[in-house]
Write a structure and sequence with these properties.
The chain is an alpha/beta fold and about 250 residues long. It has 10 helices and 7 strands. It has helices spanning about 20-30, 40-50, 70-80, 105-130, 140-145, 150-165, 185-190, 205-210, 215-220, 225-235, and strands spanning about 10, 35-40, 60-65, 85-90, 135-140, 170-175, 250. The protein has a 7-stranded parallel β-sheet, sandwiched between helices. The protein is globular, with a radius of gyration of 18 Å. It starts with 8 loop residues before the first strand and ends with a strand.
């Protein structure tokens, strides 16, 4: 299927590498103008330069700042008050069980990543409603959700349902892409040794993963960045089926 997103502007958070960058690159190839986001000037400039090799320079811009902090999120929305496509890439990797995480860290991760992601979606909804067109796509793999088990998954499920309810009857689509495990840089580090050679998961890690319900992911394999990026572009496209605009895609 030929997808043409010319005339659309897409903001992809945490998009200087990994899944976020892959999604930004594929959206750019489909014709969308891209706002690349990252926490530091160096990585944003590097990602923008790379993407400009695949699309016209004027269609790729950079937004520097940690959008999972309220002040940076608000500054981003002020600088770019309207976007057509918002890809909320959570960009969080952890294979630590909830019982092993210090309370302060859990609260910080939840508030800064999950809470701000939902707030960012709400920031852009009014303009999307006015235009009667928009896409909001959350990306969080099982590895990102694993730190809290069912808690974060349920939060995103509820967020998607609520946002879909608010946009019912409009041209706005809201989705959450939650593969079992995305092959992100953090996970690649877990699966390789310090010399970047593949290593076997030991029995202790297998047992812990099985208890947390992630062992099925190790058996089935991993979602690649390319596969996740393709899902993003499909959901962002004009002919995306209405049935796919209110679902958690796994």
């Amino acid at each position: 299927m030929q997808i043409n997103l010319s005339g659309k502007t897409a903001l992809v958070t945490c998009s200087t590498s990994g899944t976020g960058y892959a999604a930004a690159a594929m959206l750019a190839r489909a014709g969308a103008a891209i706002i690349v986001n990252g926490a530091s000037r160096h990585v944003v400039y590097r990602a923008v330069a790379c993407l400009q090799g695949e699309a016209e320079k004027e269609r790729v811009r950079g937004a520097i700042g940690d959008v999972w902090k309220q002040e940076w999120r608000e500054a981003l929305v002020k600088a770019w008050p309207t976007v057509d496509i918002l890809v909320n890439n959570i960009g969080l990797y952890d294979l630590t069980g909830l019982a092993s995480i210090h309370g302060d860290r859990w609260e910080q991760d939840f508030r800064n990543r999950v809470g701000q992601a939902v707030c960012l979606a709400r920031d852009y909804l009014p303009a999307m409603k006015k235009a009667n067109w928009g896409r909001v796509i959350f990306i969080a793999s099982e590895s990102a959700r694993d730190m809290s088990g069912e808690v974060i998954r349920n939060v995103f499920d509820e967020a998607v349902r609520e946002l879909c309810g608010e946009t019912a009857g409009t041209g706005i689509g809201v989705n959450a892409i939650m593969p079992d495990l995305g092959l992100a840089r953090g996970l690649m580090g877990f699966l390789t040794d310090e010399n970047q050679r593949p290593r076997l998961i030991n029995d202790e890690e297998r047992a812990a993963a099985a208890l947390r319900g992630t062992m099925g992911s190790f058996r089935r394999g991993f979602a690649t960045r390319q596969e996740l990026a393709e899902a993003v572009v499909c959901l962002a496209s004009e002919p995306a089926p209405r049935a796919l605009r209110a679902e958690r895609i796994r």
